[in-house]
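assembly run, all chains below
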Amino acid sequence: MFSPHHWFEALAQSPIGHFTQTSQWAFAVIEMVHLVALAALGGSVLLLDLRLLGITLKGESAAVLSRDLGRILLVSLSLMIVSGIGLLSGEALKCYYSPAFRWKMALLAAAVVFYFTVHRRTALRASAEAGPTQRVVAIVSLLLWLGVGIAGRAIGLI
Amino acid sequence: MTQPLLLHLCQTLYDSHIGTMIRESDYAFSVIESVHVLFITLLVGTISILDLRMLGLILREIPVTRIARAVLPLTWAGFVVMLASGLLLFWAEAAKNYFNPAFRVKLVLLVLVGLNPLIFHTTVYHRVAEWELEHRSPWRARVAACSSLLLWGGIIVAGRAIAYF
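ok done. output:
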């Protein structure tokens, strides 16, 4: 009853699932929204982490960048999650058994937790000259988000 | 023989050794396509930060030129790889793309998105020193920013749609 498989099946059989599976264009349109939001998310993560690495916008406060770019990140992340659930409803059971999908969810959970805990706090205290901790945080963040993207792309390929 | 010249060119590319190789390889097309998507993310993700700054939505305290200097090298890097990978994808599918409505729309949008910075840089950006500190850029810069956001969004949408026709 409470197994993940049950929930995936329930999603596939929900009205949303029915819509995405039968409509000719729904899946494609939701996928486009997912991709546009991806661009916004990617840009904000990259610029923030390059700042933490001391590569770009060194003279600007990392806290201000984190606040404003964090807004883009949150809006695009929400859009990606909502559209992602739509996409999932279109092929829920395929995703349930897909190793790429499982990797993507694990990496996504890690990336989001890392962002709300370590990343935000590091940005608030960041200095212009990036110290080793700051660099490690930026690199971990970049790798986690890149991993989410690569695993996500892989869902359609394997 | 009565084929339009462009179609003939597309067919020649399609039939060429490299085009066939990319199309028939097990991985080449998917790998190039993934790179294409990753770098369009870089391109659009970075330029949209500059656009949102000019609209006065984010980073208002930071001068426009500072943001431009930080993001434009990344945007250009994204553009170069996106263009190169896009040409390879086209090479493999040229004869099919020729008839694809989404591909045609994408090309038109690409031309428009190229004209946009051309107009922007030769007009209002010339006097950027006068307005770079303003929280909200002059209306002509804001029009350019909106056009950029809409056109690039449209390019992603049209690009994805190519696979559905």
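Chain A touches chain B at residues 25, 28, 31-32, 35-36, 38-44, 46-47, 50, 56-57, 59-60, 64-65, 68-69, 71-72, 149-150, 153, 157 (CB under 8 Å).

Chain A is about 80% helix and 0% strand.

not gonna interpret more than that til we talk
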